[in-house]
């Protein structure tokens, strides 16, 4: 395990869906087995768009979608499997009763969790957090998003640094 005290954070701006998808794709090229990505932001903020790019970066040809009604969608065919969780529709007590997290968090693939804050107590301490927030310019919301990337643990800090070396914007 890496150094739990090590944390690295940076914030960037995504001006459109293409940038958000590209950010996910570059992440997919860098992540390793047992990477957990906690995606936070309001409905429609770009979490699922990011995951579609993540899948592409992993080499997964299948089109990803939000697994809102299935909880977890599994995608194979890339350099690593992708497990995409959407916990939005489940209550906290129902989530605690599910005994599936370790299987995905510590398995052979990458786990992207939308609304992971609902299971904060079971999320691995070493992970990547991706926070999507709206931009307000001159007191008006714009289509661009502020995306804050936070890596916890030395392995994830290294992934984030390598990932950002590829980011052209």
Automatic annotation (TrEMBL):
Cross-referenced InterPro entries: P-loop_NTPase, T6A_TsaE
Location (main, coarse): cytoplasm
Record GO cellular component, one term: cytoplasm
GO biological process: tRNA threonylcarbamoyladenosine modification
Superkingdom of the organism of origin: Bacteria
Signal peptide annotation: none
Family: Belongs to the TsaE family.
Identification of the protein by name: tRNA threonylcarbamoyladenosine biosynthesis protein TsaE
Species per Swiss-Prot/TrEMBL record: Sulfoacidibacillus ferrooxidans
């Amino acid at each position: 395990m890496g150094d739990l005290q090590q944390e690295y954070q940076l914030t960037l701006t995504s001006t459109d869906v293409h940038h958000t998808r590209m950010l996910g794709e570059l992440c997919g090229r860098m992540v390793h087995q047992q990477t957990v990505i906690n995606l936070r932001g309001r409905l429609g903020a770009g979490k699922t768009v990011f995951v579609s790019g993540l899948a592409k970066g992993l080499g997964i040809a299948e089109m990803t979608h939000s697994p809102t009604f299935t909880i977890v969608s599994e995608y194979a065919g890339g350099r690593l499997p992708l497990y995409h969780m959407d916990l939005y529709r489940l209550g906290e007590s129902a989530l605690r009763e599910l005994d599936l997290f370790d299987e995905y968090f510590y398995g052979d693939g990458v786990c992207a969790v939308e609304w992971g804050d609902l299971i904060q107590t079971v999320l691995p301490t070493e992970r990547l957090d991706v926070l999507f927030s709206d931009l307000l310019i001159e007191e008006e919301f714009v289509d661009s998003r502020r995306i804050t990337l936070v890596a916890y643990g030395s392995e994830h800090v290294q992934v984030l640094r390598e990932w950002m070396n590829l980011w052209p914007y």
